[in-house]
TrEMBL record:
<protein>
    <submittedName>
        <fullName>Uncharacterized protein</fullName>
    </submittedName>
</protein>
<feature type="compositionally biased region" description="Low complexity">
    <location>
        <begin position="1"/>
        <end position="16"/>
    </location>
</feature>
<feature type="compositionally biased region" description="Acidic residues">
    <location>
        <begin position="17"/>
        <end position="34"/>
    </location>
</feature>
<feature type="region of interest" description="Disordered">
    <location>
        <begin position="1"/>
        <end position="69"/>
    </location>
</feature>
<feature type="compositionally biased region" description="Polar residues">
    <location>
        <begin position="43"/>
        <end position="58"/>
    </location>
</feature>
Length: 244
């Protein structure tokens, strides 16, 4: 889901309800009759029985994942192949960021720009992201345009939801941090608007993500960061390992 900015409180997308919840506890009162002397004698085990049970329990060793199937050679081969594919893909993203692979070779929407990108995760064209292309050809979009746009920047909802200050201000109340706090501006106004714009874009393309973080395409990052320019040392970029 996801960029990681130095904005207020938390960088996780949250669509929790505005209604506060509280934990409720119920106390149960158990009513019972005292057992007869005979029943008590029958139910209470002897010391010898207790010792025997302890010995049996001590001998039962629980092995984690004991019931899980053992990976066969085919599974291991597929796993290693997937790891290698992911490694090659990440190296390609790094080469995109440092300019080894020019933008013209991977950008298909003609709007990608690496000048404001911060790390490898952000170097993807919207035309490489399946959910972006699906969003551009959705029924809702085709009601407003005759031909599906070739870039998410031309999505009918992008500018009004991600670049307009008042739309972003009105969107703030629907987002909360992981601990249920409302977003509030602590840094610069541009930093705050960028953080909300990222979440508005994610909802526009993916819908409600909850705590899932997904990097935006390069064109969207560039448009949002150009509209709300960062000051010195304001950008940290998307980080999939950030837990805030």
């Amino acid at each position: 889901m996801s960029a990681s900015e130095s904005y207020s409180d938390d960088s996780s997308t949250s669509y929790d309800s505005d209604v506060d919840t509280s934990e409720e506890y119920e106390l149960e009162v158990e009513e019972y009759d005292s057992p007869s002397e005979k029943e008590s004698q029958e139910e209470i085990p002897t010391q010898a029985q207790a010792d025997c049970n302890d010995q049996n329990s001590a001998g039962a060793v629980v092995v984690p994942y004991e019931e899980e199937p053992i990976a066969d050679d085919d599974w291991v081969e597929r796993y290693e192949a997937e790891k290698e594919t992911a490694r090659i893909h990440f190296e390609e993203l790094q080469e995109r960021l440092d300019g080894t692979i020019p933008t013209s070779q991977w950008c298909k929407c003609n709007n990608c720009d690496t000048s404001l990108l911060q790390n490898e995760y952000e170097t993807q064209c919207c035309q490489e992201i399946d959910r972006c292309t699906k969003a551009l050809s959705s029924d809702d979009v085709l009601q407003d345009v005759e031909i599906p746009p070739t870039c998410v920047l031309n999505h009918p909802g992008f500018r009004i939801n991600c670049l307009e200050k008042w739309s972003l201000k009105m969107a703030v109340p629907k987002y909360k941090t992981k601990i249920g706090k409302r977003y509030r501006q602590q840094g610069s106004e541009e930093t705050f608007f960028r953080s909300i714009a990222y979440r508005e874009f994610s909802q526009l393309v993916y819908g409600v993500l909850g705590r899932l973080r997904i990097p935006l395409p390069a064109c969207a990052y560039h448009a949002i960061r150009t509209k709300f320019p960062p000051g010195d040392k304001e950008l940290t970029g998307f980080d999939e390992d950030v837990s805030d």
